[in-house]
Specification:
about 160 residues, mainly alpha
Length: about 160
């Protein structure tokens, strides 16, 4: 009974396996790259895979659904960037996000100017004004308010 169940589950699993043998041949390596793109000489026969993130792939039908990979699939040379644990794909285009950020900054600065110049009242009293340049001579002049120069005396 358990052997029959194991055979059925193995047959069902093998029907769901998507192996990609065409990625392992040199002819598919040339076919996987566009015609105007030169083959990378540093790959030395390794398939030059398209630059597509695994986050775009469907989550169903893989041997490892978490990483969206099958056993034996070649890894992309930049797997750490294109894998499931790489940087998230932004849901908004960078130019749109920059525009939204600019709008938010403009709204924040406009609100600040509105509060500063539109909503705040003038002080209820007139600011005090002193004659003769603001009591500079009465307070001893500008020279009396300067800091003393430091001197190092040897004992």
């Amino acid at each position: 009974m358990s052997a029959t169940l194991a055979l059925r589950s193995a047959a069902a699993a093998s029907s769901r396996i998507r192996l990609l043998p065409s990625l392992r041949t040199p002819s598919s390596r040339a076919a996987s790259t566009s015609s105007n793109e030169e083959l990378d000489p540093q790959l030395n026969g390794y398939p030059q895979l398209p630059f597509v993130s695994r986050q775009h792939l469907t989550p169903h039908g893989w041997q490892d659904p978490l990483m969206r990979r099958n056993f034996g699939d070649p890894l992309h040379e930049q797997e750490e960037v294109l894998g499931m644990w790489g940087p998230d794909i932004p849901p908004v285009a960078p130019s749109t996000a920059a525009g939204h950020f600019f709008i938010a900054v403009t709204a924040f600065v406009s609100f600040g100017f509105l509060v500063r110049y539109g909503l705040l009242q003038e002080p209820p009293a007139i600011r005090r004004e002193y004659p003769y340049g603001g009591l500079v001579t009465e307070l001893g002049g500008l020279d009396a308010n300067k800091a003393r120069a430091e001197s190092v005396e040897e004992a």
